[in-house]
Amino acid sequence: MEKKVFLFPERALMEFCRQSFQRSGLREEEAELAADVLVKSDMRGVDTHGVVRLPFYCKRLIDKGTKTDPQIKILREKPAMLLIDGDNGLGQIIGIKTMKKVMEKARTSGVCFAGVRNSCHFGMAAYYAMLAIEEGMIGFAATNTPPVMAPWGGRKAFIGNNPLAIAVPTSEDFPMVLDISMSVVSGGKVRLAAVKREKIPQGWVLDGNGRPTENPDDFFPGGTLLPMGEHKGYGLAVILEMLSGVLTGAGILSEMPLWFSDTAIPTNTGHFFMAIDIDAFGDLNVFKERIHKLIHELKSCPSSEGSKEVLIPGEIEFCREQTCRKEGIPVSSEVLKNLDTFASQIGILKLSFCLPHREL
Amino acid sequence: MEKKVFLFPERALMEFCRQSFQRSGLREEEAELAADVLVKSDMRGVDTHGVVRLPFYCKRLIDKGTKTDPQIKILREKPAMLLIDGDNGLGQIIGIKTMKKVMEKARTSGVCFAGVRNSCHFGMAAYYAMLAIEEGMIGFAATNTPPVMAPWGGRKAFIGNNPLAIAVPTSEDFPMVLDISMSVVSGGKVRLAAVKREKIPQGWVLDGNGRPTENPDDFFPGGTLLPMGEHKGYGLAVILEMLSGVLTGAGILSEMPLWFSDTAIPTNTGHFFMAIDIDAFGDLNVFKERIHKLIHELKSCPSSEGSKEVLIPGEIEFCREQTCRKEGIPVSSEVLKNLDTFASQIGILKLSFCLPHREL
Q1: Min distance A178 CA to chain B CA atoms (Å)
Q2: Quick check: A246 and B294 CB within 8 A?
Q3: Which end of chain B has fewer CB atoms < 10 Å from its terminal CB, N or C?
Q4: How far is B61 from chain A (nearest CA, A)?
Q5: Does B76 sit within 8 Å of A80, measured CB to CB?
Q6: How distant is the Cα of B36 from the closest Cα of chain A, in angstroms?
Q7: Are the beta carbons of A80 and B233 separated by less than 8 Å?
């Protein structure tokens, strides 16, 4: 198959993901929730966390590394905190349910923070943080990951790149949404450079011997990502590991298996979620007026050489989402082929048979 | 005066700072608190935020830009949140008092978050976060600052480098303490390179025309610091500005005057503080056992070329503090001269007359 890109309407991708999750054992309602996390990731341009990962999540459900019907429990509760046991369910379901509970408690207490243990990979962190926007709250979501990054001063992958997302309501078209991992780039970007046979900048990765390299092929095997901002990104990754993993009683560092290959075993991934109710601090409209000032003053900054304009966190992703809504969500021929193969395996209609879709 | 370094015992510096603050109008008890923040900064190697700044804080008190007897008020309160009006008092006093109240509420609610408006520069952020350690809590402290950094894609200083500190109890000799600003380096480091006539790496600053430069002299005037981790550090700075400035009703971006030169006007600086009570999530000793594992597994990572070992956030600062306690706190002849001049102005004994101190 040639390298092509096909455009699918949101509805078609949602339906395909929902059916896949149901066939893998989820109830319809929860399959719908999980599908939404994946499709929204593709729409926001976070392709690495989109439908491309659907078969891995489903395989975990089929292989019983992830439970289809977990008993998600509140282990500890106070007015502003929750400790949640995800019972090895799907990270997406645990994430959505926990964030809803967090917002409910933040409405009363002003702020709520939840730690989660016994979860699994939850996909795009921004999804959960953004649930707070509709409620007039500031949302936080973070997770630990298997070790993929060297601690600053180290030369082996000993810690996760532990993504953190924060979402803020605004009066603009777009919400303010920061969603960053603590490595300079994701492993996905290095893989892409390897496929395209392009050099990568110094500072992205170390090779298997712990030496700096500009050759993306040196990343495999045994290479490691490097932290963004040197010791600063490393320090933040340690704090996020502590909050997601240590405080919650989840796994940490080398205890974290690879969720996409070790599909029959629980990962005991840890997350945390937080919501701040803006109303507790003052009028939401006043907050939005001030956010408006913040955004427009930043955007009025003269741009540097090679840059068109100053962007606000989440602005690019929002534009991409609007485009996908109008024009369809791009799926590469390679991903489409994998999803079709997977569809045949579990006995649902191939995605390429879903109409309407069109070639880009 | 030649370039020399003198070593002072903690007690001597404390006494000098306390007297200075009292002469500038603070009550003894509060002068003692403010002195401790400054001296601890020097001891932790955060010299830029130590006694070198004492005359500026005092000048603000004398010029009435900072009130000597502020009525610090709780404007809003819920089980897990506080909105504090600092009434333009000294940032150090507001910070300590707010953090204590935050920890008191976290003891009941599990977590508490406080926003502060009408404060001023509070010095080393880690000081406030570290107050939580003794209580078996995780502490957070952050502030906005006058614009010193370019937004990513911009070429002028439009946003603060907005430091964030997080402190975590451990079972090691040292607590885990992250204290970072969102710029690659502080302006102080650029100034130091200029004094030493050393080149600076690409990526630290832009010159007055928004161009990359390796000459530290190009930083003055009109140059700007750059964010650490490119768009990631910029994004975090925006979030910290939102939490410290927008949520709290404090000043933001260009509204922030230079606290050390505009000494007769309030700065309306914003901060936030947070505490997480570890006990609410589980046994503190179990937490510490897991932190022990986190720390020792990270430290077991083979080191990269040019690095001796992997360090834990706060480890260097702790060692420095221990050394200062034994050997004395270094004060350069230049800083000593300034402090002596200041002492004469306000009519207290010069620091250089304080015994015992010795030349390094």
Answers
A1: 6
A2: yes
A3: N
A4: 29
A5: no
A6: 26
A7: no
Phi, psi of B237 (to 5 degrees): -60, -40
> Residues B218-266: pLDDT tens digits?
998 899 999 999 999 999 999 999 999 999 999 999 999 999 999 999 9
Q: Which residue of B has its CA nearest to A224?
A: B304
End-to-end CA distance of chain B: 15
Using an 8 Å CB-CB cutoff, list chain A residues near B115: 281
Q: How confident is the model at residue B355 (pLDDT cuts 50, 70, 90)?
A: low
Report DSSP state, residue B242: I
Nearest to A307 among B110, B153, B281 (CB): B153
What is the C-alpha separation between A339 and A352, in angstroms, rounded? 9
Q: Which of B110, B172, B175, B119 is nearest to B142 (CA)?
A: B119
- Test the B interface: residue of A81, A152, A296 with most B CBs within 10 Å: A81
Dist. CA B347–CA B166, nearest whole Å:
38
Beta carbons of B282 and A243 less than 8 Å apart: no
Residue-level pLDDT, tens digit, chain A, 360 residues: 457 899 999 999 999 999 999 999 999 999 999 999 999 999 999 988 999 999 999 999 999 999 999 999 999 999 999 999 999 999 999 999 999 999 999 999 999 999 999 999 999 999 999 999 999 999 999 999 999 999 999 999 999 999 999 999 999 999 999 999 999 999 888 988 888 899 999 999 999 999 999 999 999 889 999 999 999 999 999 999 999 999 999 999 999 999 999 999 999 999 999 999 999 999 999 999 999 999 999 999 999 988 999 999 999 999 999 999 999 999 999 999 999 999 999 999 999 988 666 776
The Cα A277–Cα A113 span in angstroms is 12
Tell me the angle at which helices B10-23 and B28-43 cross, rounded to the nearest 10 degrees.
Answer: 140
Nearest to A252 among B246, B254, B290 (CB): B290
Alpha-carbon distance of A97 to A99, in angstroms, equals 6
CB–CB of A176 and B238 under 8 A?
Answer: yes
Residues of A in contact with B206 (CB under 8 A): 304
Measured between CA atoms, the residue of chain B closest to residue A111 is B80
Rounded Cα distance, A290 and A311, in Å:
17
- Do A152 and B228 make contact, defined as CB atoms within 8 angstroms? no
Question: Tokens 């804080």 — which residue?
Answer: B57
Whether the predicted pLDDT of B136 surpasses 50: yes
| φ, ψ of residue A154 in degrees (nearest 5) | -105, 170
Whether A245 and B308 lie within 8 Å, measured CB to CB: no
Separation of CA B277 from chain center = 23
pLDDT at A356: 65
Question: Which domains are assigned to chain A?
Answer: 1-62+329-360 (1.10.1530.10), 70-182+229-327 (3.30.1370.60), 184-226 (3.30.60.50)
